[in-house]
Amino acid sequence: MRISTPEFIALMAMLVATVAISIDAMLPALPDIAATLTPERPNNVQLILSSFIVGMSIGTLIVGPLSDSFGRKTVIYWGAGLYILASIICIFASNLETVIVARLCQGFGAAAPRIVSQALIRDLYSGRQMARISSFVMMIFSIVPALAPLLGAGLMSIFAWQSIFVIFIVFSTLSTAWTGLRIQEPLAPEQRIPFRRAAFQAALVEIFSLGMVRISMLTMVFAYAMLFLSILMVQQIFDQFYGRADSFPRWFALVAGLSASASFLNSMIVMRLGMRRLISAALRIQIVWSLGMLVLYTQGLMAGNLGFALFIFWIFGLFFQAGMTLGNLTALAMEPLGHIAGTAASVTSAVATLGSILLASMAGQFFDGTPLVMLIAIFAWSICGSLSAHRLKRFDRTRAL
């Protein structure tokens, strides 16, 4: 029996959420890990997050073509195996370097469910309908960032920080088993593309020859950079600037939960307004929002309870913007590439993720205990993203996208 659309959306959201739980559940553990493994250079603890994202970005470049050649489900199985093995290594690691290398491998494995889910959506849907399905996936997926820090903090109140990796193993096992039982392999043997260098190079040439795809990827770099930097720095700002480390999981859960409304809103209006218009509007609002926060900071108004409330509202805006842009940008990039969906999902995601995490990691190392670096970087990237998104209007004006 074919899987129903609601169940398909829920399963795709769980596959994508492998990435979110692997990042967000670690956030409450960062102070403990820093104190245990890198007490002299606490900013190095950010590498536990960024190494995972780097590994994921490298993995995304490979798993898509593999799924075009060997099938979607086979790649998910191999990715889950690597992810679980790396999680076990993290549990028994005794130094930061081992954790970083294992997290790199874990990210590589997590690329499989992330990319194959995009390819599966493109296998079955196209155009604005694909964007609508992606929005529903993101809406359900948003529950995980809301719950993951609470889950991590809850485990740490009973066990050591290593227990968080046990949750990763259980989560991956459940999502992989669900996929194996309920998803029918969409690629028949005759539809698969041989895994050859010439075929991959031809796909690369096609992907980068399309202006809409190039500009969508560039815009994704800036949109993801804003999201990743907020994830890398938000816990440290709670701790060092506001002195609210204990309440961080609850506030983060509230922000992430409320931001799910962005994906719901996008799914309701994207069919009428189109993806380009929504992307541009979200980035322009972010420019104004971030500039206002910079002004408030220079006037000394971001300290204390009022400043904390403004900061929470701004973080909510960042997550809301992600819900209004990332799904639409992915759909725009994937739209003309349905015949090579796996490779296209890999290349577009790899470029966007690697470019954005490099920007976010470099900015994160300048953290000085205040929100200033984060405010400046996100203001600059929102301007760059808006300028890039404006160029999307040049492509395919006659098509209703």
Identify the CATH class.
Mainly Alpha
- Weakly predicted, low-confidence segments: 397-401
- N- and C-termini, Cα separation: 33 Å
At the fourth CATH level, what is the homologous superfamily? MFS general substrate transporter like domains
Helix segment tally: 15
**Average predicted local confidence, pLDDT:** 82
Radius of gyration: 20 Å
Outline: globular
| CATH architecture descriptor text | Up-down Bundle
Kindly give the count of domains.
1
Which sequence of SSEs, written as H and E, runs from N to C?
HHHHHHHHHHHHHHH
Number of strands: 0
Strand composition percent: under 5%
Q: CATH fold name, please?
A: Growth Hormone, Chain: A
Category from helices, strands and their pairing: mainly alpha
Helix content: over 70%
Main sheet properties? none
